[in-house]
Amino acid sequence: MPRIFYGWWMVAAGFGLELLIGALMFHAYGAYAVLLREEFGWSKTTLAAAFSMARAESGILGPIQGWLTDRFGPRALIRVGMVIFAAGFVLFSRIDGVVGFFVTFFMMAVGTSLGGYLPISVAIVTWFRRRRSLALSISGMGMALGGLLTPLVVAALARFGWRWTALVSGAVVVVIGLPLAQLMRHPPETYGLTPDGEPRVVDPAKSAGSADARSYTAREAMATRAFWYISLGHAAALLVVSAVMVHMVIHVTERLGYSLPQAGAVVALLTVMQLTGQLTGGWLGDRVSKRWICAGCMLGHATALMVLGLATAFWMVLAFAVLHGLSWGMRGPLMAAIRADYFGSGSFGMISGVSSMVIMFGMMLGPLVAGILADRTGSYVPGFSVLAGFSALGSLAFVLARRPLR
């Protein structure tokens, strides 16, 4: 019986880590926000500001994090990240005001950055080339599958309260997250293996050297138009993704009048569609143009957000979940894959880290624009319309992001 290529074990570990982060924090944030509003009376802007501040951290620390990942490997960073993530949850369960909320949520965000998307992507990119999009999409499915667990988190919030749920979440991160981090490894050449588990050539060192020679440094990548177009397109997509994470549950429960369990069901449907999109996008991304897939998904993001903002019936909310989930799922794993295809894997961590300084503006501004305009106008329609417009413009960025030539 042939041995399973170790890269797939790393994909499984990445899946599990993304599942933890998605289920316990990102998809659950909207439900926490509803309960925090009830207990403390905080505005939508305050809740959006905390989320945006936390996302600013990923952009500011991105280049440093990328360098550390390239230098010391993903396992060390992920272990540190999981410890910080867990500690943040424990302290969050004890807050009694807005300052404590900002501080502890920032801690959790730092933990998820160090233990999440960037180091996981760096690890997988170095272990796969031919099946890179598929490997990244399977790993990223963990974040999407976390949405399916949102109803369980919502049930725990309703039954035991948000403080107890947060405390237990911290314990879960330690018990599951740290062992998964141990499965991450340095590039396959370190262990006498090759990407995708393909047969080794006569001189593996020479092969690895030639691959690195084709890779761009971060400085070289930044000198290309493709780097900036991809970064701007990615930021435009996250305007919508981040706004939905923070405000969708509040919009569905407060403005449309549906219950928290119904909102949880919408998140679950969105997740099913995201999973479907990831499998489809991962398969297509290894066969057809990634940038055209991404351009189409940007238009899907824009349309979905407008449907959500203008919804007058529950079927329209469900239609939003289907379209947004498919667009998010297909586009998500291709963000790392297209960068690796264009710039190589030699400095992928640093290139991704520098790119995150642009991407962070999407994660920051999406919730803020939607929250501020909703507080001032009493409706999410103006904010959602603005964000949908920028998402549509992001489609053009991907159309223009052609592969750079040496």
Keyphrases for this structure?
mainly alpha, 18 helices, globular
Biggest sheet layout: none
With helices defined by DSSP (H or I, 4 residues minimum), what is the helix count? Answer: 18
Q: Give the strand content.
A: under 5%
Class from helix and strand fractions:
mainly alpha
Low-confidence blocks of residues? 204-213
On the 0-100 scale, what is the average pLDDT?
Answer: 85
Radius of gyration: 20 Å
> Total strand count, please?
0
Q: What order do the SSEs take from the amino end to the carboxyl end, as H and E? A: HHHHHHHHHHHHHHHHHH
The 3D shape can be described as globular
Distance between the termini: 43 Å
How much helix is in the residues?
A: over 70%
List the SSEs and their pairings.
Layout (H helix, E strand, L loop, with lengths): L5 H21 L2 H12 L3 H17 L1 H11 L1 H19 L5 H17 L2 H11 L4 H17 L1 H11 L1 H20 L22 H11 L3 H5 L2 H31 L4 H26 L4 H20 L4 H30 L4 H30 L3 H20 L6
Helix pairs in contact: 1-7, 1-8, 1-10, 2-13, 3-6, 3-13, 3-17, 4-5, 4-17, 5-6, 5-7, 5-10, 7-8, 7-17, 8-14, 8-16, 9-10, 9-14, 13-14, 13-15, 13-16, 13-17, 13-18, 14-16, 15-16, 15-18, 17-18
What does this entry look like structurally?
The chain starts with 5 loop residues before the first helix and ends in a 6-residue tail after the last helix. The chain is globular and about 60 Å long. The chain contains 18 helices and no strands. The protein has helices at residues 6-26, 29-40, 44-60, 62-72, 74-92, 98-114, 117-127, 132-148, 150-160, 162-181, 204-214, 218-222, 225-255, 260-285, 290-309, 314-343, 348-377, 381-400. Helix 8 packs antiparallel against helix 14.
